[in-house]
Amino acid sequence: MSMIDVRGLTKRYGPATVVDDLSFTVEPGQVTGFLGPNGAGKSTTMRMIIGLVAPDRGTVTVGGRRYRELPVPLLEVGALLDAGAVHGGRTAHDHLLALAVSNGLPRTRVGEVLSRTGMESVAAKRAGSFSLGMRQRLGIAAALLGDPRVLIFDEPVNGLDPEGIRWVRDLMRSLAAEGRAVLVSSHLMSEMAQTADHLIVIGRGRLIADTTISELTRTSGAGTVLVRAGDPGGLTRRLTEAGATVHEGLESSLIVAGISAGDIGKLAAFHGIVLSELTPQRASLEDAFMALTRDSVEFQGVAA
Amino acid sequence: MKTLHSEWIKLRSLRSTWLTLACLFVVGLGITALAANATGDIWAEATAADRQVWDPTGHSLTAYIVAQLIVGVLGILVVTSEFATGLMSTTLTATPRRTRVLAAKVALAAVVALVAGEALMFGAFLIGQPLISRQGVPSAALGDPGVLKAVLAGGLYLAAIGLLAVGLGALLRATAGALATLVGIVFLVPALAGLFPSWLRGIFDFWPTLGGAAALNVVPDPDYPHPWVNLAGMCLAVAGVLVAAFLVFRRRDVV
């Protein structure tokens, strides 16, 4: 069963439609990357999942129930929305204790999540003195309090140093490996490539892609082949006659689209043209993401 | 109950809570002592008519004027500090039943403001009266007619202001805006009463914080012959603000 089920979700702020008829599911046992340019509606969608923002249309359920109807929310869902969502005058321990008590969780959980996030040594310090990385850890500790089956992280690696990023990445992988559903948002494709199993890509509040990482690279990278030949002019003519599109690449290479690498090789052999390189191109994930979201980003630029 | 306990942990774990309360007593009792020490001169210059309506109880409780602002700050911060820091998102994720969250905050603020308010008013009375009597000015005792009622009214008045502050905090979400509104209600509108056209002045007979505070006097204020009715009216107005706060708090998006 899907842990998070988003159906036809729509949110408007005045004339702007921030989330537009968005539907997707988040499955247990994997990390689902929630990807889109800044302002695509990721945070608003996450806030609708946990009932902080009311949708204008559509429904969201978590484990089959609406968030507000969960009897003990922290046992079902842990959320890190904003690392600043802590009162700077309160200690890390007291912040977590207030949350644990509000859901009737045993006080021992506070110590457990502090140690899982490596925060024991600063438990008695006020959160106002924390670095951004420590605040992120505290937010993650709060999300883990109820040992929930669903975890929602909004841009968890923002502002972290490389060590912190690696720690968050490993944590998310291990949480998914424990069978939990992990939904994590980012505007960086490269980050998702190393963490996520599944991808939900949105732009301007609409669903652009609901796919796996490998599928995304395959589909968007298909089609172009890099060729170097002894007689580039001759090969270009033959290829064009055969219906392919040819562009000049760097260092007298050719970028060929609309014909497979194998067919290029046969064509070259038939006409006696020597090839020194014949490489099918796989677009990087970053390119794939840019291609997917180009329209929505451009539109935002015009509208702004 | 769990929500209330959680709110209590949040309130007691902030140093600002204790600093505000300490400030309430230092400022409140300090003003009381200063006011009581000045009674000798006032008495010496007073006419026979003034002496007729001399109210030592009301005089020792005048610290409520400043105390209401400090209690107000405490009530406002219970709500607005969570909006200012973004903590409200975390709180409502843990407890999505929003009515329960605000109800816990209201209940906690009511108890704290009432206990602190009564303690301050009794403290002010008990410190003020010996100082007044030392100046050779007639003073009052708790057992005198109407005195206990007036002192209790002082604590109730402060508790009502504390609740008004929670309501304003939930409605306005920003500390500065809520505090400005509170100051406007308790100080500015009454102070500017003279500027209003005469047909509007009637509302000042009913302006909650004016009549309500009259209950702190033992000698009745001729403008407010039934101050407890005014105090009840003030509580009703505060309840109205709280109802609006609950409705808005339930519906509004938290971003």
Automatic annotation (TrEMBL), chain B:
<keyword id="KW-0812">Transmembrane</keyword>
<dbReference type="Pfam" id="PF12730">
    <property type="entry name" value="ABC2_membrane_4"/>
</dbReference>
<protein>
    <submittedName>
        <fullName>ABC transporter permease</fullName>
    </submittedName>
</protein>
<feature type="transmembrane region" description="Helical">
    <location>
        <begin position="62"/>
        <end position="85"/>
    </location>
</feature>
<feature type="transmembrane region" description="Helical">
    <location>
        <begin position="179"/>
        <end position="200"/>
    </location>
</feature>
<feature type="transmembrane region" description="Helical">
    <location>
        <begin position="106"/>
        <end position="127"/>
    </location>
</feature>
<keyword id="KW-0472">Membrane</keyword>
<feature type="transmembrane region" description="Helical">
    <location>
        <begin position="228"/>
        <end position="249"/>
    </location>
</feature>
<keyword id="KW-1133">Transmembrane helix</keyword>
<feature type="transmembrane region" description="Helical">
    <location>
        <begin position="147"/>
        <end position="172"/>
    </location>
</feature>
